[in-house]
Amino acid sequence: MLKSIDIKGLAVVDQLCLDLEQGMTVLTGETGAGKSILLTAMKLCLGERADASLLRPGVNKADLSLDFDITALPLCQQWLINNDLDDQLDCLVRRTISADGRSKAYINGQVVNLKTLQQLSEHLISIHGQHAHLDLLHSNKQSQLLDAYLPEQAALVSCHERFDIWRTLNNELLHLTDGNKDNDSEKQLLKYQINELEQADVIHLDYDDLVQQHTLASNMSRIIEISERQLNTLYEAENQSIHNQLSNAVHELELLTDLSPDFKAVSEQIQEASIQIQETCRDFRVQIDKQEDDPEQLNLLDRQLSAIHELARKLHVEPQQLSEKHNELVSRLELLDNRNERLNAIHQEIVSAEKSYRENAKQLHQVRLKSAATLSKKITETLKTLGLPDGVFNINVAYCPDEKPQKNGLDDIVFEVSTNPGMSLSPIGKVASGGELSRISLAIQVVTTQSNTTPTLVFDEVDAGIGGGVAETVGICLREISANRQVLCVTHLPQVASQGHQHLFVSKHKEANQTKTQINSLNKKERINEVARMLGGIDMSDKTIAHAKEMVEKAI
To answer: For 495-504, what is each residue's pLDDT tens digit?
Structure first.
């Protein structure tokens, strides 16, 4: 579950730390108070793209974080372990947005990309927005909703896998033919390129080592010059070397030690230094004598590097990639040499792969039919409680065996509805009005979330356009859903707000010519007053307050 939200420097929020509880939490407040800013912060922390316009005026950076308790989420724990992001049983997601538009994302203190953040969010939160009814009109959204309700995903996953096999084989076929039947010219070019690479001996060549050898050879005269000069200074210059001077010092210090034993330690250390320099310089001389300034070797290295750079330029790769490119060209040539044999084989493989795919697509169709029937019945029952007593909902799953293979199978999935007696079922986009579409969307969300395993569900004004007894039913449904998970609900309806286990009130005020949003957790008395405000407006009568008290206490 989501334990807390921290927001700094985002839009109308200066600084906000909000602790959340299990069960159903409702957020209420006047329009424009800033309720949506919480959802914005959540979406940003879960991988939504950001821009600098979201920052609060005058700040250089927005800092947002969500702290989750994943004690009861073994799949999430394993995902974090698999991605080297685990931190015991907590999961801290953080996002920063700078004034220059750049942003950073973190999971348990480690920097991640937005794709990783989005993958994690699937284990933590499901957000149902106030415009979900508009998404519902898209056929791909309808397919996603049905597939998410399948009792098990094996048939769908298998369909994806077999489609990928079929598509890979078709891509190989396209690569083999390349749009023409004669590949002789390409084979000649491949042979020429392979021969060039082999003549340059790039297969066993270590480019980085060659560069290092070239650097050494080009600087050899200077290496020898510096080495000889330093060896002369240290040891070989008669009467002027450091070793000669130390030897004289050792002699003098021995005389000093004879006069005063206190200087014995100093004398011994200087003598050791003299011996060390002598031994080191002997090794130094051996190393210098091994160096050889060889112009011919340098010319050879020059030619090798020039040839390598020219080949890399012609083949559009980096010099370090020439060996890999050689392997690629050899593989391509072998493929073309065996082209006819492979073409015969691949046609058979494609036929077999497509047959396997279509068998699985048919199995997926049967699984979808069963789930569609169950889901249609439950949504129809829910519609009747949401002010559509004659509403009938149906998910039509039509199998299209003649269609070209698609990743999600061969089904044409259409959500149909009838809202009045005697009216035939038709696609929801053609029949439902705006208000009816909102209720249908809400019914779908209520039913599908009951089978959803996501631990935190967020509903953003999904109850818009309803009221009265229907609104009370929606509130009760959301509270029932929160029995085994966390529900956060932004609402303007007192019937929904009164059902919450925790009630957060969002307000705004002006301070130093800037608007600030703050959120307070309400106690029972404050909750009653807020529900009364939602019922009766600014001027609340004793009757309104009594009604609000009855609603809150009834829910408790």
So the answer is: 999 999 999 9
Contact 109, 92 (CB under 8 A): yes
Distance of alpha carbon 554 from the chain centroid: 43
Give the mean model confidence (pLDDT) for residues 505-523: 82
In which residue are the tokens 């008290």 written? 549
Q: Does the pLDDT at position 261 exceed 60? A: yes
- Rounded CA-CA distance 317/313 in Å is 7
The DSSP 8-state label assigned to residue 405 in this structure reads P
- Order of strands, sheet of 426-427, starting from the edge strand that comes earlier in the sequence: 392-399, 411-418, 426-427
Dist CA 180 CA 544 (whole Å): 81
Read off the tokens for 316: 């559009």
Which sign does the torsion angle of CA 466, 469, 471, 473 carry?
negative
Token output for 120: 């994690």
Q: Where are the alpha helices (DSSP H) in 200-294?
A: 207-218, 220-231, 242-259, 264-290
Could you tell me if 424 and 411 are in contact, meaning their C-beta atoms sit under 8 angstroms apart? no
Between helix 339-385 and helix 322-337 the angle, nearest 10°, is: 100
Among candidate residues 65, 29, 133, the one with its CA nearest the CA of residue 505: 29
Contact by Cβ (8 Å): 10, 56: yes
Closest CA to 336 of 444, 153, 182: 182
Q: Which residue has the tokens 């080592």?
A: 209
Tokens representing 394? 């149906």
DSSP conformational letter for 492: S
> What does residue 267 show for φ and ψ, rounded to 5 degrees?
-60, -40
* Beta strand ranges found along 471-540 (DSSP E): 486-490, 502-511, 514-521
Around Cβ 365, how many Cβ atoms within 10 Å?
19
Q: Is 5 helix (H, G, I), strand (E, B) or coil?
A: strand
User: What is the number of other CB atoms lying within 10 angstroms of the CB of residue 553?
Assistant: 11
Token output for 542: 């004793």
pLDDT of amino acid 518: 84
Backbone angles phi, psi at 550, to 5 degrees: -65, -40
| 3-state DSSP of 100-151 | CCCEEEEECCEEECHHHHHHHHCCCEEEECCCHHHHCCCHHHHHHHHHHCCC
Rounded CA separation 235/538 (Å): 98
Burial 152-178 (b: 16+ CB within 10 A, else e): eeebbebbeebbebbeebeeeeeebee
Contact 460, 39 (CB under 8 A): yes
In the chain, the largest separation of any two C-alpha atoms, in whole Å, equals 127
Q: Quick one: average pLDDT of 263-268?
A: 90
